[in-house]
Amino acid sequence: MTVLMERPRTTDEEPEPEELLDSLELPPGHKAEFIEGDIVVSPAPQFEHQHILMKIIRPMVLADWDPHGEVGVAVSADSRFIPDLTVVPRDFAFSAQRSWQSPVGIELVVEVTSSNADKDRGAKRRGYAYAEIPLYLLIDRERKETVLFSEPDDGDYTVADRRPIDEPIPLPEPFSFTLEDIR
């Protein structure tokens, strides 16, 4: 179940989104994101969700990329996302002083749909494009498809490569390999 909370308003100075999210006390396994001004709390993912991610992580590591889970990314003034996977070059270093990272240097983000499927398809797609993250891979379990979004421009991706979920997914440069059998 996803819990949506309206952004709290005060007459005094409002806390930064990072401070607000970091101050929440969440049950174990839950995560809180700031999506287009709303706080969205999501439960721990199901086994199938994690299984799909492992099918993406293995080839990434073998191809000398660093896939990270649970990295907070500040994509815009009103959005802070925690992608299922954030993929960076092997020699990339996130800031140890920040709980929410800049999108600069991130080559690919991956989301596997669960309780926030509409957010993954819409708000997150737009947010990642706005942050100019070159590739966004959406594994849509409801629609049984994968969508590789690329070429961000003016707050959205201009290219969407849609495939049935059981088909291989070729990743363009700088990856230049194909993800197979992710289901």
> Which architecture would the CATH scheme give at its second level?
Alpha-Beta Complex
Strand content is 35-45%
Which structural class do the helices and strands define?
alpha+beta
Judging from the principal axes of the Cα atoms, what is the shape? globular
Q: Which regions are unreliable across 5 or more consecutive residues at pLDDT < 50?
A: 1-11
Helix share bin: 10-25%
Count of discrete structural domains: 1
Strand order of the largest sheet: 4-7-9-10-11-12
Q: How far from one another are the termini?
A: 23 Å
CATH topology: tt1808, chain A
CATH homologous superfamily identity:
tt1808, chain A
Largest sheet: 6 strands, mixed
Secondary-structure element sequence?
EHEEHEEEEEEHHEEEEE
Our count of helices gives 4
Features of the shown structure:
three-stranded antiparallel β-sheet, six-stranded mixed β-sheet, 183 residues, alpha+beta, 4 helices, tt1808, chain A, 20% helix
Question: Quick gist of this model?
Answer:
It is built from four helices and 14 strands. It is of the alpha+beta class. 29% of the residues are buried.
Question: Could you characterize what this model shows?
Answer:
The chain is of the alpha+beta class. It has a single domain (45-179), classed as tt1808, chain A (Alpha-Beta Complex), CATH 3.90.1570.10. Helices cover 20% and strands 37% of the residues. The strands form 4 sheets. The chain has a 6-stranded mixed β-sheet with strand order 4-7-9-10-11-12. A 3-stranded antiparallel β-sheet has the order 1-3-2, covered by helices on one side. β13 (169-171) and β14 (177-179) form a beta hairpin. The longest helix is centred in the N-terminal third of the chain and has 16 residues, at 47-62.
